Amino acid sequence: MTKTFKRTCDTCHQSHSRGLTLIDEKGRVHQGCTVTMCACEPESASLLRFGFWPLSPKSPVIAVSTQLLDWLHYLTLEAQVSVQNFVDTLMSKEGLFFSQNLTELRRLMRGESVSEYRVFKTTISQFPDQLESSIQCPACPKECSSFQAGDIIRSKNKTAKLTYTGVFAAACRHEIPVKMFNLCHGERLAYAVHMLNYLLDYCAGKELNLHVLYDISCVLQRHLQKRNNTRVLEAIQFAIPVFHSYGHKEDCQVCLNPRRLKGFGLVDGEQLERLWSYLRLFAKTTKEMTPSHRLDMLAMAVGLYSHKKQLGMDKYLVDKLNRAVLVFQSSGEKVDALLEEFHLDDTQKREMLDLWKKEERQMLAEKKTVRHLLDKHDIKETYVRKLRTYYFLREQMTDLNSLGDVEQEKLSEQVSGLNEDLCAMEVRLKISQRWQPGHIEYQTALLNQEEAKKLEMLHKIRLLAVERDFLVGVRSKYSEGQSVANRVTVALRRVSSALTKKVAVFNSLGFSSTEGDLPATISLVDAKDTSSDLFLNFEEKLYNVSTVRPLVSQVANSTRRRALEAADLHKRAAEEQLLIKQDMLHLAQTMHEQHAELEQQLRVNCTTQFERGRKSLVILKLAHLEHRIQHMSERYSAVGVPIPFISQVVYSFFPCSNFDESDDNDDNDEDTYFLDDTNDI
């Protein structure tokens, strides 16, 4: 590397030379380098012209190559490389094992000035005037595009000594973060309520239909109802992410599944899980940082994540539209196949599906009203249970000689206590004479208790069978050997093992009901089949639905459920197509407005160095934006979504082949937000 740097200035003829220590792009330290700088600008600005970043703002004595800092910046954000590992890599690559400057290089690269360079890079990427901010979603309506955590890259409190347990966040349907804040405790409902209040305050006075997906929306709703928070309950429609919903109870799977609810489209609710998978990679470095440096790192990481999502937003939306079209077609064909045996026209099919949906809701309501059959008994059953224990202990008291004094005293106390309880119950039940073991009412009550135990066990078996069916379906979607398939297989084995144990317990009860609809034993094969007559009879016995179910609905519960899920998926796919086309329009309008604003800034006369530098950045942004607009127009036209005003754009710099856009994206819903937290960052 040359050791002399000199700048010639046409407007100022005063210059001075200084000796500095420079670190080049390979991490090598060069001492005694001569740098001639002009008096008309700060020394730090002159060093930046030469490609070096000063390690102090005034009278710097050491400067680092911006190429080296760029490598550190992008390797940190993209590969989560720590400063220690970065310096070690330089040491190995350049053969600097015995350099005396390695310790000093590590110290310098961890300094505050390197952190300031990261902020400088982030600021330049969003220049001019935050026009293309990486913290706003271009496909959402402007009323809901905001991310407060990244508005100020530098943290405000530099001396805070707090221990954070994680991060809570909300994101829009396009995976752009809306708001993030630190957790100082474990996951609490108060954080979710705070986020909801923020969303409502931000959207106040704007005509937006808010849909929120949260892993435990059912618990959150009950919490809001208990606190009588009508403001949130009336303004927001809740749902549980698709994958999480199958781990909830049956009523949650029906009432809070986004596939069953109007307005959610094909949103899966896993937007934040994809963000966490990226941010978790920073855990090994952020856990050793100060609170302020941790905040800076996470803000820049989220900014880069959002920026990459923005660059590929047009392709992302087109892919989503194509997927929605395919789902719309396949779900419609599935509904037709499931209802083919009934030979119905379209109107009759809709009527039957509406009837099945009504029955499903009615069944869920009846399950809640008769839950006492599973988890509580009336006073007569309690009386019989205590009476049975009383007679059992009385039999043990007949052989007191085999018991010690302490055991005899304890047994006598138990019998005496039970006798008092029984006397009190007999008064309430108006039983004049205590039932004997051969009494007919006593025997009937015992049978009812045994039947309740069987029903409870059969209920648990059915829940495990439904969960097993779901896991079998999930596993079939992944190839053998994939990490997801392996995790699902482990869960499937666990559920299958639990199901086998529950069947064994059911068979060990050895009881058959008087009506014959509860068998003494069941086979494991029948227990695994959710559409078997065993469970159909169980539903009629427990929930008394046979009297309200028409003959045409007397089909397997699994068939009815698959038909309802396919029909709802068909509706959501149609919604998704409309939502995505709206998102495409919002994206095109945003980019068109950005282009007009950049062109306006380009017409401003430049009289100072700063203005000329700013104009060069505007030109760069404009060329990049025109390239993106051209690609967006081509992609939209390919799927039959014309954008009228895009054809009116006058390209000043296009064609330009030096800018490539990111193709990294995933799925998801406008005016839809996702709440989640992680304890790893």
What report would you give on this structure?
With 681 residues, this protein is of the alpha/beta class. It has helices at residues 43-49, 66-79, 83-94, 102-109, 112-125, 189-202, 217-226, 230-235, 242-245, 250-255, 271-279, 283-286, 291-311, 313-338, 346-369, 372-375, 379-397, 405-429, 440-475, 483-509, 524-528, 533-543, 557-602, 609-638; strands at 4-6, 15-23, 29-38, 52-54, 62-65, 166-171, 177-183, 210-214, 236-239, 672-678. The strands form two sheets. Strands 1-3-2-5-4 form a five-stranded mixed β-sheet. It has a five-stranded mixed β-sheet with strand order 7-6-10-8-9, with helices on both faces. It is elongated and about 120 Å long. Mean pLDDT is 78; it is low at 129-134, 145-162, 372-377, 544-553 and 654-670.
Given as residue ranges, the uncertain stretches (5+ residues, pLDDT < 50) are 129-134, 145-162, 372-377, 544-553, 654-670
Taking all residues together, what is the mean pLDDT? 78
Structural class designation = alpha/beta
- SS summary, helix count: 24
